[in-house]
């Protein structure tokens, strides 16, 4: 009986330790602070232009302007009892990140198609974000992403935080040890707790919470939503298929649409740099199965990556998962040796039919670009001795405009 009691006691203690350990992996956001979509302990709260803010906003010490009833769909708390109660909670929220141990170290800059798995990430100084930063939950809806930046964070225009495979806005946390600025027409999401001014530049979109221990919060024609704002579309299927090895059929289905405006089909040759290739109007309001099909008649030879951008009527949006498909090259060529340690040779059926050869690294930057000049043959040998190790994409453009691609690895 004593042994049984000891076992029960051990299990209870172990459960308590695990519970405390798990609790410490998530920053502490107090009830009052957590009720705000935008809040500063001390600083002006200003909107310029026709923004749309859904959720409560506030400042405990600072000017307040620009948030009329057509801008703010929530409550404002300015230098009152509610804002005073939020101040220590915002400070405690910022400090609570410090008790969370880093599992990975990031390098600057962030983005450019970078994919992060669930975990706690740290970066030792200020940084910037360009292109897409992709958070992959690996089909775990409870996956947590914590990113701790010991300095300011600024995002480039048109940059995005992309959630895939079940990642949730409410499970993304950012500690920013300085100012936080989003670039024009960019999108950002998660719970941000900063230690400096927050500014959303022209037409950028934010979903989540943005709190700061000190500094002004400024908006410029932005859309700001809480992390509880429902997505406009419930997507049940998203597939891509080849059509006669020339075209790609992009098909998807929804079972629920609310205030949805349109779908934009985006394509990439690398999975990092994306371009919109077509738009289909959404149903707007629907609770039945609805099927959509878009045909890419200008698909690239080689691997094509596709994703959907699902856009609401207020211009908030979400991305689908990424799908890929490979089409046979219309230009017949081989590259050898592949992988390579020093150089690669490109052999084409007819080199005279080739207009341009490019080599692109996985940040989307062209590191080699040779174009045919009048009456000159095109060099098919690429010296890669001084190139960093890693994957590259060879992009071959024919005189007829047909583009073929092939992956090559530098060891």
UniProtKB/TrEMBL annotation:
Belongs to the ice-binding protein family. It comes from the Bacteria. InterPro entries: Ice-bd_prot (IPR021884), Ig-like_fold (IPR013783), Secre_tail (IPR026444). Keywords: Signal. Residues 335-402 form the Secretion system C-terminal sorting domain. This is Por secretion system C-terminal sorting domain-containing protein. Residues 1-23 form the signal peptide. It comes from Dyadobacter koreensis. It holds the Pfam family Por_Secre_tail.
């Amino acid at each position: 009986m004593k042994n049984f009691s000891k076992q029960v006691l051990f299990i209870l203690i172990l459960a308590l330790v695990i519970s405390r350990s798990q609790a410490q992996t998530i920053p502490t956001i107090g009830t009052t602070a957590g009720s705000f979509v935008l809040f500063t302990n001390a600083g002006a709260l200003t909107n310029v232009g026709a923004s749309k803010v859904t959720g409560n906003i506030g400042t405990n010490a600072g000017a307040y302007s620009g948030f009329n009833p057509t801008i703010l769909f929530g409550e404002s708390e300015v230098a009152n009892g509610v804002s005073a109660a939020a101040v220590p909670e915002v400070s405690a929220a910022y400090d609570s990140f410090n008790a969370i141990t880093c599992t990975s170290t990031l390098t600057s800059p962030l983005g450019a198609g970078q994919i992060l798995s669930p975990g706690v990430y740290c970066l030792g100084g200020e940084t910037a974000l360009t292109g897409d930063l992709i958070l992959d939950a690996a089909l775990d809806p409870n996956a947590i992403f914590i990113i701790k930046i010991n300095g300011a964070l600024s995002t480039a225009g048109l940059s995005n935080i992309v959630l895939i495979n079940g990642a949730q806005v409410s499970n993304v946390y950012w500690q920013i040890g300085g100012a936080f600025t989003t670039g024009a027409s960019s999108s950002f999401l998660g719970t941000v707790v900063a230690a400096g001014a927050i500014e959303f530049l022209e037409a950028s979109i934010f979903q989540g919470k943005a709190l700061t221990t000190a500094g002004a919060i400024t908006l410029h024609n932005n859309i700001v939503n809480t992390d509880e704002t429902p997505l406009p579309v419930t997507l049940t299927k998203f597939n891509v298929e080849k059509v006669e090895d020339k075209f790609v059929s992009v098909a998807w289905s929804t079972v629920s649409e609310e205030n949805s405006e349109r779908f934009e089909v985006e394509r990439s040759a690398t999975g990092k740099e994306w371009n919109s290739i077509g738009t289909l109007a959404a149903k707007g309001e629907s609770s039945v199965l609805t099927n959509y099909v878009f045909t890419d008649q200008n698909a690239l030879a080689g691997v094509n990556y596709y994703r959907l951008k699902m856009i609401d009527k207020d211009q908030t949006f979400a991305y689908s998962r990424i799908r890929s498909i490979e089409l046979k090259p219309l230009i017949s060529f081989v590259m050898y040796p592949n992988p390579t340690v020093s150089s690669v040779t490109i052999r084409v059926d007819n080199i005279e039919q080739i207009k341009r050869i490019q080599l692109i690294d996985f940040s989307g930057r062209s590191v080699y670009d040779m174009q045919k000049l009048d009456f000159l043959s095109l060099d098919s040998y690429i010296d890669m001795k001084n190139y960093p190790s890693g994957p590259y994409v060879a992009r071959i453009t024919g005189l007829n405009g047909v583009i073929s691609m092939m992956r090559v690895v530098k060891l």
